[in-house]
Amino acid sequence: MAHFFRRLAKAAPITLANAFRGQSNSNTSSFKIPFGAIAAVGGGISAFYYFQSPTLVFLDQAPEEGPKVALNPNKWIEFKLQDTAKVSHNTRLFRFSFDPNEKLGLDVASCFITRAPLGQDSDGKTKYVIRPYTPISDPEAKGFFDLLIKVYPEGKMSQHIASLKPGDVLEVKGPIEKLRYTPNMKKHIGMIAGGTGITPMLQVIEAILKNPDDKTQVSLLYGNVSPDDILLKQKLDALAAANPNLKVFYTVDNPTKDWRGGKGIISKDMVVKGLPGPSDDTLILVCGPPGMMEHISGDKAKDYTQGELSGILKELGYTESMVYKF
To answer: Which residues are annotated as a binding site for FAD?
Structure first.
């Protein structure tokens, strides 16, 4: 168990050092998490939807040689919960396992959807709560994926996942393609994330940093309510310290007395000073709660297309082709 926490400390706050201590569930077994293998809930999604047979567009999966793929874009697959750990006052870590000879089957940057039963409708048919999640574990990892989830009192899916015990299953379908990242697609990528919106950003960051042929510069503005709410800060700091092409700036609404980062919501001044300016060789990625999205770029359209660009990015001269909303 001590080995688990030494490895995990590089990817999550040090409060994880006591995450499993005091848990007496005999079904709980230790597991190893390599640096960079945590996945968090995809940010920017606040509403939930009920579907009997959801009509969604999924990433096509062509047959490929090599490891088999665990996900299926046309079928709900059950993944077994292996273990959990408390990370902070409202965040928990979940590891789900599958055949160790298979990889999950996600590209950068894609996500999957999960569902949980939520009673029955007037016709006696099962209703479901559906949520998208963005894994950030290594796409080549086999046999597991990890989710880092903020559990909210009114969060129907997060409450469902938090209620699972080792051995219980979660239904997953996907992948769903979002931004199809390719190395050196832009000279400079700017990122604006709020809360759990860090998830797709970290997925792209890690893809860039592990490829020595990818020369993309990355600048991240990461906003949270308080310093304690910053997810994966130690991991981000370590990545920035080791990679000169990654710059990270934090800002919080409620700073503590010893806080040395930015204060307040992400502003025009922060964007001007911290992100690349409007250019054909620039791409700004945005992901966060609805209020932040409206302030920064405008939210996505009701049909989940990118929608019209607005907010401070439009005011600063960025165009729709320069911005991608997760």
So the answer is: 131-133, 148, 150, 156-158, 199
